[in-house]
Amino acid sequence: MTERPVPESKGRAFFVGVSFLLKSETLFGGANKFDCGRNVLLISKFMNWTIYTEAEKLVEDEAIFAIVARALGEDWTTKSSHQLRIGRQPEKDLSLVAFIDGKLVATVRLWSILAGNAGEALLLGPLAVEPYLHGKGLGQAMLKRVIELAKEKGHGAIVLVGDAPYYERVGFSSKPTWMMRMPGRYDQNRLLGLELIPGYLEGHDGVITR
Ligand SMILES: CC(C)(COP(=O)(O)OP(=O)(O)OC[C@H]1O[C@@H](n2cnc3c(N)ncnc32)[C@H](O)[C@@H]1OP(=O)(O)O)[C@@H](O)C(=O)NCCC(=O)NCCS
């Protein structure tokens, strides 16, 4: 379990400084409960997230699927990488869930796969953060933790299909997977790999399978 506050430096981590020079009844239906006799009201809530593995914290698939659908859209199951996940369980001691105030807010899952003739590796996905929390560093925190855990457990590499500019921030690149192929339709530029053991994917090709 890891705990991390939303970084203060981002400035978006706080519901801060809501300055109501407006009359509060405009916003709160006349209840006036936020009118403390001042014309500036500060509402501040510091958000802490806690990240658990799915082995530590049991979460129903349905709750995870709901976040993924809100973040990625209802068609998320049509993605090529999803075909490698159907009917299977993720690696629960590597897959992560994040909570804020007891509410599930983010998920990232890792799956055991075969990366062509490189052999055993992990497939990452889906990674999803509740849309109202986007841009607060939680996605990157989840990725860093999942990579750290996979490395600690001795895995050789992680592959995924996703947006290179985002995943490059934590070391993924299309280079190690350039000679590999995914089943189904996908964009080769979005097939990314991260070697946890240096050279693990190097010189290998073949199809990524379950
Ligand atoms: C992608 C996602 C997991 C990122 O989580 P997050 O908690 O919002 O991300 P972080 O706060 O850690 O990082 C935000 C940074 O990543 C950038 N970023 C977010 N999504 C990006 C993307 N798809 N491509 C490139 N950069 C992206 C943001 O612009 C921001 O940049 P900044 O730090 O320079 O301001 C989240 O936005 C999400 O669930 N999106 C819906 C699914 C999706 O779009 N997936 C695409 C990736 S395959």
- Which class of the largest domain in CATH terms? Alpha Beta
Largest sheet: 9 strands, mixed
Number of E-state strands: 9
- Can you count the helices? 5
Share in β-strands: 25-35%
Number of structural domains: 2
Element pattern in H and E: EHEHHEEEHEHEEE
Could you estimate the helical fraction of the residues in percent?
Answer: 10-25%
Ligand names: coenzyme A
Gross CATH architecture of the largest domain? 3-Layer(aba) Sandwich
- Assign the structural class, choosing from mainly alpha, mainly beta, alpha/beta, alpha+beta, or little secondary structure: alpha+beta
- The quaternary structure here is single chain
**Gyration radius over CA:** 21 Å
Instruction: Enter the CATH topology name of the largest domain.
Output: Aminopeptidase
Rough outline: globular
Low-confidence stretches: 7-45
Mean pLDDT: 84
Distance between the termini: 28 Å
